Fold this sequence. Notes:
The protein is α/β, with parallel strands linked by helices and 333 residues long.
Amino acid sequence: MKCRAFHMLTVAVAIVVAWSFPAFAQTDPLPSWNDTPAKQAIIEFVGHVTEDGGSDFVAASDRIAIFDNDGTLWVEQPMYVQLAFALDRVKALAPMHPEWKDKQPFKAVLDGDMKALAESGEPGLVELIMATHAGMTVSEFSSIVTDWLATARDPRFKRLYTELVYQPMLELLAYLRANGFKTFIVSGGGVEFMRPWTDKIYGVPPEQVVGSSIKTKFVMRDGIPTIFRLPAVNFIDDKDGKPVGINEYIGRRPIAAFGNSDGDLEMLQWTTLTAGVRFGVLIHHTDAEREYAYDRHSHFGRLDVALDLAATNHWTVVDMKRDWKVIFPFQKQ
Length: 333
């Protein structure tokens, strides 16, 4: 009698498992994505490269996926978040630099004259970065960034910048990692501006962040070894600098690249225009109501040449309005 009862229990468990496993297996890995060709392309690509024994199988060690940050993983309008940080730093440091009130581009920042700031161009922005990001240790800079992000809010959404990350991309990062991918950020933004928070927000640890940098040097301060930040450019990880940074810091050619602007063009070319299964994606900002709509004429995140080349190079273009159910985590139902 006991044997029969045990047998019946075993059968019952087997039935439950049989019914439960397919339900689990069919769980949507990208719930914030609409069922459009973009989502299907992502899932098909992951299926091809992870199918053991398949003709397109890629070993886990070579499953490298790279992501731009600004405009790809979080908001970049009305200006790059790091630029907003630099502007706030100018205002905070201004009492110690009375000469700034008459010197551009600092005068433009203090006067709130964004037109004059824009006219200062890249040299002006570099000067701002050097003045606000150097002259301190790496640890001190990390603390300043962390403290700023804990309170600074976006002017439109009135939320912390770290809340303005894209929910569909968070799901994509997790989905890739669940399938054996190693995910990297490859951004034109400052590498030490990003490293203090990318692990917490994206699940990307600091050693998997590639970005622009300023020069540093080792210094003993009061018997304590430190790395000191110098007011000089070391490396610009943008446009044709991105493949260089990928090669230098990652050491493997990625098989998937995700960007949103012409600054990511060379990164996408380096990743996809080679032999083997490759996947390139452009995030196209098309939703003015939930986020922003911009491309060819934007000062930040301009998408022009790369957009024209997408079809020729077989890159998937993600239309944010059409392909995403929500933009930000706080918009989830």
